[in-house]
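User: Can you recover a sequence for this backbone? Please restate the input before giving your answer.

Assistant: Of course. Working from this structure:
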């Protein structure tokens, strides 16, 4: 049975809020009524923040991380080790690894992982730009820090093959992160140890 609303405006707000991932219509209604109870300045500030996020957010020209400028603060930090590049799926992994305090290199955000079932191939990811970074000659080590799933392992191997002709060390995070786990959900201690105790990718596969 469809919920009937006393206001078309309320119904429209619920429809939009419930389109967010993980937000059902009951939760959307609760959020909409909460907004309605707050003063207009709060709601305008909330809406402005969302508009600014969508309109003004940028992607780092070097690593493709989300940022406010053309180059993110990590890539612009001369105190970081720019010869060590940690390859991750998305911004959430960057945040998770940064929270460990165990990595002082820089990152490369792929924007996803290879997943034929979802229609995502190598050409949909920032793999070519990673190869270009390595080809520049300044990168000495590439750390593959993708989720320990079949899709993550497939992406790791594809990148390994693409970089195999370059003079660069390719390592993978230690399996302190359980098989099938996603990086963003690993606790900071486990993830930190996995970064520190990374191993050669050659040792993780059978050629």
């Amino acid at each position: 049975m469809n919920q009937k609303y006393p206001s078309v405006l309320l119904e429209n707000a619920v429809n939009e809020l419930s389109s967010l991932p993980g937000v059902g219509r009951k939760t959307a209604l609760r959020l909409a009524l909460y907004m309605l109870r707050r003063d207009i300045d709060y709601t305008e500030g909330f809406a402005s923040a969302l508009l600014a996020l969508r309109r003004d957010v940028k992607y780092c020209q070097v690593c493709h991380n989300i940022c406010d400028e053309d180059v993110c603060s990590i890539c612009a930090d001369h105190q970081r080790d720019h010869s060590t590049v940690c390859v991750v799926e998305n911004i959430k992994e960057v945040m998770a690894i940064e929270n460990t305090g165990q990595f002082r290199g820089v990152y490369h955000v792929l924007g996803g992982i290879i997943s034929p079932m979802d229609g995502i191939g190598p050409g949909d990811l920032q793999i070519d730009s990673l190869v270009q970074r390595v080809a520049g000659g300044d990168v000495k080590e590439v750390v593959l820090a993708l989720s320990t799933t079949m899709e993550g392992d497939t992406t790791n191997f594809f990148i390994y093959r693409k970089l195999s002709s370059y003079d660069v060390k390719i390592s993978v995070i230690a399996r302190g992160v359980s098989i099938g786990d996603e990086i963003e959900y690993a606790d900071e201690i486990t993830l930190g140890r996995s970064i520190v105790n990374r191993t050669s990718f050659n040792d993780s596969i059978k050629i």
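That completes the design. The radius of gyration is 21 Å.
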